[in-house]
Amino acid sequence: MPTTEVKAPIDAPRGLAGVIVTETQLGDVRGTEGFYHYRQYSAVELATARTFEDVWYLMFHGELPDAAQLAAFRAETAALRTLPAAVRDALPALARAGALSGPLAGLRTALSLLGATAGFRPLYDIDAGRRRADALAACAAVPTLITALHRLGQGLQPVEPRADLGHAANYLYMLTGDEPEPEQVRAIEAYLISTIDHGFNASTFTARVITSTGADLAACLVGAVGALSGPLHGGAPSRALDMLDAIGTPDRIDSWICDRVRRGDRIMGFGHSVYRTEDPRSRMLRGIAERFGGPLVEFAVQVEARVEELLAELKPGRELHINVELYAGVVMELCGLPREMFTPTFCAARVVGWSANILEQAEDSKIIRPAARYVGPPPPQPLPVVAPL
């Protein structure tokens, strides 16, 4: 009788750092040189020269659209911004329930409801065309869900989306109820584009793991949102600004940072699991912030320069440089976004990257099923005798 060879488990580093788990055509992060790309284009160049819809199309279709394709894509996605009645009617209760947790808590439930209402079926059971349709519907609806939940939580009525505005402008309009200034739109659009995708981060990997089970698209996105909500992933931009507030003045930078480093605290806005140089997203966002100018920007630049010096002294060889969080927070603050909306705004962009990864993963029917090394008491142990009552 033939026997099946059992392969020995492969040891992997803690956190799966650097482990290749699949192949992708969507992009990559090259941490030692401070570069990342979406498909064949520099992500930073796309953020500075193209619209959000251009890059959304690129991630879904593998090429940048021409003028006619872009116009058709804008019309297609804008028409999907309006929520189904069943979802819209449930949002006040979700906002009340998530009053202390914020819009992302409500978004998880709202996405599940959206998927059920729209008839999302398991990805395993549908073809590529239906998967794309579900992904477009979810990506277009997420900004509407996020802004509606935020406004309801503030005692305000949601603002209905406008099909005549681009993705970034419409997002700001639904958030505030006012048509935004062009410089605000361009700044937020650049930020949104720069955060669409970023390698196999925790939330993207989560989405792909769930996709590998054949689950529906909404289930995959709910898992990704849950991963993003953690302060070590998507929850850091507001905390980086809180750090600036806590430091307060330039003369307090050294004492505040040194005290936190000695206590073993993480310095929000600095250090990255992949980059060993300056985060290219931070470089771009610093430039945007400096075009706005003002005391907040000046102080952020001072803090950045001094913290980099202090971390080099206190943690030599660790290569702890600025990451996207600090200037992402500064740019969003300058554009009038409340801090509780920083991570949801991140989510409004990253949902496109998640969805592109979901569509790619759905083409592979192999379930993702790693192993763990057991380190508990050696089994089997004899069961303890239970004394009779």
Automatic annotation (TrEMBL):
Q: Which domain of life is it from?
A: Bacteria
Instruction: Establish whether keyword Transferase is in the entry.
Output: yes
Provide this UniProt record's keywords sorted from A to Z: Transferase
Which InterPro entries does the annotation name? Citrate_synth-like_lrg_a-sub, Citrate_synth-like_sm_a-sub, Citrate_synthase, Citrate_synthase_AS, Citrate_synthase_bac-typ, Citrate_synthase_sf
User: Which reaction(s) are listed as its catalytic activity?
Assistant: oxaloacetate + acetyl-CoA + H2O = citrate + CoA + H(+)
Q: In which pathway does it act?
A: Carbohydrate metabolism; tricarboxylic acid cycle
Q: Does the keyword Transferase apply?
A: yes
Q: Which PROSITE patterns match?
A: CITRATE_SYNTHASE (PS00480)
Q: Into which family does the record put it?
A: Belongs to the citrate synthase family.
Question: What's the protein name?
Answer: Citrate synthase
Traced from the root, the source organism's taxonomic lineage reads: Bacteria, Bacillati, Actinomycetota, Actinomycetes, Kitasatosporales
